[in-house]
Amino acid sequence: MGSIKTWAWVHKWSSLVCTVFMLLLCLTGLPLIFGHEIGHLLGDEVEPPTMAADTPLASMDAVIASAKARYPNDVVQYVFKEPDESTFWFVSLGKTPLDQDNKFLMIDSRTAKILNEPKFDEGFMHVMLRLHVDLFAGLPGMLFLGLMGFLMVIAVVSGVILYAPFMRRIAFGEIRKNRAAKLKRLDTHNFLGVVTLVWVFVVGLTGVVNAWSELVVNYWQADQMAEMVAPYKDLPPPTRFASIQAGIDVAKKVEPDLNLAFIAFPGTAFSTQHHYGIFMNGNSPLTARLYKPVLIDAQTAELTDSREIPWYMTAFLISQPLHFGDYGGMTLKVIWAILDILTIIVLWTGLMLWWKKRNQDVPDIETQIRLSEAY
Amino acid sequence: MVTHLFMRNKNLKQIFKWPIVLGVLTLFGLIIALLEDGVLESISLVALSIPIIVIIYFYYRN
Fold first, then answer.
1. To which H or E segment does residue A375 belong?
2. Cα separation, A160 vs A85, whole angstroms
3. Distance from CA of B22 to the nearest CA of A (A)
4. Which of the residues B2, B5, B15, B60 would you substitute to probe the A interface, choosing the one with the greatest number of A C-beta atoms within 10 Å?
5. Is B14 helix (H, G, I), strand (E, B) or coil?
6. Quick one: pLDDT band at residue B9, thresholds 50, 70, 90?
């Protein structure tokens, strides 16, 4: 197992490097857990009108026509929806299919009327999101936070190994509150740390996986998408486009048991110049995230190809709910928030344990353990 | 309270028994809730709550 001294060194330095960033991630993550609810409270979200549940949906062509009527000079990039919500679509538009400076429209799925123009790229929640995802630094920021997450995983593993010698003589859950403050801090750190361990490990590791999302999607495009659309490689981009509703109907014939999750229009990251990328999903919390891509020829609305997503996309898609905690209703969100706060306490007590003794002549770790037992 | 001075050193099994039980409960809850929306989800939410209840109980007893 290596000497305790080595593990103490690993725990100290892996923690010290990542703690400030982990505190930032925990603090910004807290409002993000309740992003949807906060949006409602701030009045940013508009409720679609109530209609009978069996009101037929408008054709997707009409939805797109509404969006194009609002922004005639822009191209449609994506159509997507909220999970478990079928009364409205979000449509994103930009100057080009890959334009990052895009606009969003919320469109009623039954009447094809524009309900709202949400600003996803400004306000408090946007700042929280960017600080949490990439520190406003794009891909390098994401990869940097991914690296910090990896250090945290090392800190967790070394922390578990150090837990044993500190617990030789005290009972599980014992917090020595009536003696020195540092003992209370030490026991709190160890107890909360070991009980929240698996959650922190899972959320940390899935966060690291998410940090690689852009690269994973790029690889998937170069790998599988390129294979699926190889026959189109040398063709000029189409100038006339078939009905998107016709394309959706074809996709539903290919995957009759699945629902429409989102549409990527030609030229975006999830389609090609020649295709509508129609992404279908299932109903359970898991299958709702495991998208099945159906590529439809954008000129003829005929099927080009449809295949299972590869393992690395599956791993990435499964890691999302495990990081966000958005798959078990409000109860799971509250559990996520409490565990997040407990993690902040573990980070804080750990930082304080180091801070208070940074200027002292600190005995080596084995003496420290003995001293902590002798109190 | 100095009972720990007279306590014999615990072995690894004793030290890690409860952390492992709570860790398995957490893992079970995290994964099972992904699979289904119904009864299994409620069971996994209970499993995920237990570590939190354990923390609050031990921290505030006495």
1. none
2. 42
3. 7
4. B15
5. helix
6. confident
